[in-house]
């Protein structure tokens, strides 16, 4: 992996040089981890003209949640408590006589930006923009392998829950059990706070679990994901509790399933982001549910659970191969509940079989 991280930093270095910047300061944690293998709390990365340095407030621990640092990358631990690694990095860039430094303005606070200017007043600060995020869009096969394992863990945790007795248990209890099962199966932790919605809460996007108990006849919507070596997947399913589903539940579920399938089938290299969104959204729009829809159909996943690209009506850009995304349409009917179906997939060309489905738990409407 050391060669992989070095190659990523070299690509960024070349982009900075082409833009007239001698060095780059990376402060966003996911970007630091992408380029260095680890992101200790508060760490920043200086990508210099010829060599790079990670600046940390404390020594890297090697714990799973911060990753494993590229063994060929030098790390500098600040000697005094309360110091700012970003300021130390800018100070070094100035000492190396760099005339300009590209920074992630979308991540820096105003106060930190001023601190950089004060420590290196002769250093021209430029905006790096989302260069690293754009570099992260297309995943290599090792990254996809991590996402594949994360998806397997999430599938296992969800499958085990479905074999247990659910009636009478609270949303909060089920969410905590799912997160425990994720860790039991090898996850570093949940990819995001697990969502469990029952009855009138079902189908709501990112519902925070409450103390409502599961009842016979409820829709049960579960959305969870595993974090494996920093890479995060997402899966969401909807079930019916106890009895055969009512006609309205079957009708709504079939509609959302059709929309989700249309979105999945649209995931091909060269497809516009908004066209993928339209493929799923138009199914639900035509059934009169336009007011009940989320502002997006899906999003990218990787070192963050919600990263580019965004599959939304106004999103600009086109998909590339090896870009992992979610497709997660849903409909929530106030006071009644609803349906969400959510998968993580990797964009693949038709010659390779089309989109690769990572989350494989059945999408059949089960009565549990």
Contiguous uncertain segments of 5+ residues = none
Q: Write the element-wise H/E pattern from the N-terminal end onward.
A: HEHEEEHEHEHHHEEEEEEHHEEEEEEE
Give the neighbour order of strands across the main sheet.
Answer: 4-3-2-1-5-6
Structural class: alpha+beta
Mean pLDDT: 94
* Rg measurement, Å: 23 Å
**General shape:** elongated
**Distinct helical segment count:** 9
Helix percent band: 25-40%
Terminal CA distance reads: 44 Å
Tell me the major beta sheet.
6 strands, mixed
Range of strand content: 15-25%
What oligomeric state best describes the polypeptide chains here? single chain
Quantity of strands, as a count: 19
Features:
six-stranded mixed beta sheet; elongated; alpha+beta; three-stranded antiparallel beta sheet; aminopeptidase; Peptidase_M24B; aminopeptidase activity; 368 residues; protease
Explain briefly what this protein structure is.
InterPro entries: Creatin/AminoP/Spt16_N, Creatinase/aminopeptidase-like, Creatinase_N, Pept_M24, Peptidase_M24B. This protein is an alpha+beta fold.
């Amino acid at each position: 992996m050391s060669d992989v991280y070095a190659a990523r930093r070299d690509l960024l270095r070349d982009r900075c040089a082409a833009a007239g910047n001698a060095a780059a300061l990376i402060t966003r944690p996911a970007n630091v981890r992408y380029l260095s293998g680890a992101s200790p709390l508060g760490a920043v990365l200086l990508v210099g003209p010829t060599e790079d340095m990670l600046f940390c407030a404390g020594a890297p621990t090697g714990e799973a949640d911060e990753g494993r640092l590229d063994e060929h990358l030098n790390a500098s631990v600040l000697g005094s408590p309360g110091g700012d690694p970003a300021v130390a990095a800018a100070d070094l860039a100035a000492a190396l006589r760099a005339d300009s430094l590209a920074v992630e303005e979308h991540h820096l606070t105003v106060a930190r930006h001023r601190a950089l200017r004060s420590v290196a007043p002769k250093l021209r600060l430029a905006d790096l923009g989302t260069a690293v995020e754009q570099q992260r869009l297309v995943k290599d096969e090792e990254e996809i392998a991590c996402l594949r394992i994360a998806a397997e863990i999430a599938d296992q945790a969800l499958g085990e829950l479905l074999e247990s007795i659910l009636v009478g248990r609270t949303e909060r209890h089920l969410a905590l059990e799912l997160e425990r099962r994720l860790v039991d199966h090898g996850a570093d932790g949940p990819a995001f706070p697990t969502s469990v919605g029952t009855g009138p809460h079902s189908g709501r996007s990112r519902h925070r679990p409450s103390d409502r108990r599961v009842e016979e006849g409820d829709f049960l919507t579960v959305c969870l994901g595993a974090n494996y070596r920093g890479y995060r997947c997402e899966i969401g399913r909807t079930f019916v509790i106890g009895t055969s589903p009512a006609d309205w539940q079957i009708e709504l579920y079939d509609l959302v399933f059709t929309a989700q399938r249309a979105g999945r089938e649209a995931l091909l290299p060269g497809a516009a982001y908004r066209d993928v969104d339209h493929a799923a959204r138009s199914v639900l729009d035509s059934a009169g549910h336009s007011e009940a829809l989320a502002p997006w159909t899906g999003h990218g996943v990787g070192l963050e659970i919600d990263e580019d690209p965004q599959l939304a009506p106004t999103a600009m850009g086109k998909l590339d191969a090896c870009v992992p995304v979610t497709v997660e349409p849903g409909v929530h009917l106030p006071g009644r509940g609803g349906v969400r179906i959510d998968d993580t997939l990797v964009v693949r060309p038709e010659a390779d079989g089309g989109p690769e489905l990572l989350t494989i738990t059945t999408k059949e409407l089960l009565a549990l």
